[in-house]
């Protein structure tokens, strides 16, 4: 009987909350519309791996200034992390996509 205590059941399913929801993708569309109102181009890519879903955002002006590149990672536990895509520096971690997008630096919206 002692042997039964140490056995782990094989029917446990591990939950993976790493996928962006439809509401998250609607927020990304709204961000793109906001960029167009600011006369900036906007593009994003989605990269999906087991346990991690990423959105990479690109924004720029139609001029000589370099474009801005940031990414939002959604981890297995549902956490969001906003990261500078060029340097890999984490800017913020949050529980909602909206609060992560609110921390996008000014160079994403305006040319400096």
Could you please describe the fold and organization of this structure?
There is one protein chain. 22% of the residues lie in helices and 32% in strands. With 112 residues, the chain is an alpha+beta fold. Strands 1-2-3-4-5 form a five-stranded antiparallel sheet. Strand 2 and strand 3 (68-75) form a beta hairpin. The termini are far apart.
Task: Supply database-style keywords.
112 residues; alpha+beta; 5-stranded antiparallel beta sheet; 22% helix
Short account of what is shown:
With 112 residues, the protein is α+β, with helices and mostly antiparallel strands.
How would the blueprint of this fold be written?
Elements: H1 2-5, H2 22-37, E1 41-49, E2 52-60, E3 68-75, E4 80-84, E5 90-94, H3 97-101
* Percentage of residues in helical conformation: 10-25%
Catalogue the unreliable spans.
Answer: none
- Overall pLDDT score: 88
- Main sheet summary: 5 strands, antiparallel
Q: Separation of termini?
A: 70 Å
Strand fraction: 25-35%
Strand arrangement in the largest pleated sheet: 1-2-3-4-5
* Class from secondary-structure proportions: alpha+beta
Radius of gyration equals 19 Å
């Amino acid at each position: 009987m002692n042997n039964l205590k140490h056995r782990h059941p094989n029917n446990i399913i591990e939950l993976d909350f790493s996928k962006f929801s439809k509401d998250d993708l609607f927020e990304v569309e709204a961000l793109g519309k906001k960029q167009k109102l600011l006369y900036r181009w906007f593009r994003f890519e989605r990269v999906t791996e087991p346990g991690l879903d990423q959105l990479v955002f690109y924004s720029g002006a139609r001029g000589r200034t370099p474009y801005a590149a940031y990414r939002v990672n959604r981890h297995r536990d549902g956490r969001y992390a906003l990261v500078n895509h060029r340097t890999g520096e984490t800017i913020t971690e949050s529980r909602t996509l909206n609060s992560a997008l609110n921390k996008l630096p000014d160079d994403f919206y305006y040319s400096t």
